[in-house]
Specification:
alpha+beta; Archaeosine Trna-guanine Transglycosylase, Chain: A, domain 4
Length: 229
């Protein structure tokens, strides 16, 4: 278990005429305590545990997909067993696999769609699950009022940070609202549970509203901390 969370792949879009990648109904599940994958984002990972080396090898030969799922609290006591995970995760396509000489590998996942776990399987060293894809619908853009509130709050948040210039790609006009919201959900410095809360939103609009509320809370929390300092 290890991640190499990077920003180099943020904001990638796909042409509208690209056929959706086929998602198997049974996929390997990669549970992590600190990572939530979102659709239409990219996630680099470093794979070194033997069971997950096998998982990547198997997935590369069949289906090309793995499910990223967040471990629930208390996972430490049963990490090498089957600790519980949240039932909703995101399917990742193996966009690239770079084998290393010692058996480890660096992979790049492309987030496809959210999924719900229907049944878990433990036939292999790694966990598998029968899943149902949780597609939100056809909405691809935000209502103007929802979008404006999110951008206004985000701009205020960025002005309070030293690394604001590194976030400028979020504001490129050609980036769709869906990619913008999911990429912001990925890189916002909030807790894994808060990211899970964003992933589980019923719609893009609800996710954007939750993002706005979360950023606003983070700004107030930072302001209160400075006041007590």
């Amino acid at each position: 278990m290890q991640t190499d969370h990077g920003r180099e792949h943020q904001g990638r879009d796909q042409p509208d005429n690209v056929r959706p990648f086929p998602i198997p109904t049974r996929i390997p599940v990669f549970p992590l305590p600190n990572i939530v994958l979102f659709p239409k984002t990219y996630l680099p990972l470093h794979i070194f545990e033997p069971r997950y080396r096998t998982m990547i090898s198997d997935a590369a030969m069949s289906g090309q997909c793995i499910g990223m799922a967040l471990l629930k609290d208390g996972w430490e006591t049963d990490y090498y067993g089957h600790p519980p995970v949240f039932s909703m995760g995101c399917v990742g396509r193996l966009a690239s696999v770079q084998p290393l000489a010692d058996g480890r590998s660096n992979i790049l996942l492309q987030g496809l769609e959210r999924f719900e776990i229907e049944r878990e399987w433990y036939d292999n060293a790694y966990r598998e699950a029968t899943i149902s894809v949780a597609v939100r619908g056809t909405e691809a853009s935000l209502d103007l009022s929802v979008r404006q509130r999110l951008f206004t709050i985000l701009e205020s948040y960025l002005r309070s940070r030293d690394d604001a210039p590194t976030w400028q790609e979020f504001f490129r006009k050609e980036v769709s609202d869906e990619i913008f919201v999911n990429t912001l959900s990925t890189y916002l410095e909030c807790t894994p549970l808060e990211k899970q809360f964003l992933l589980e939103a019923d719609s893009l609009h609800q996710q954007a509203r939750r993002l706005s509320d979360l950023i606003e809370f983070m700004m107030h929390d930072r302001s209160d901390a400075k006041g007590w300092g």
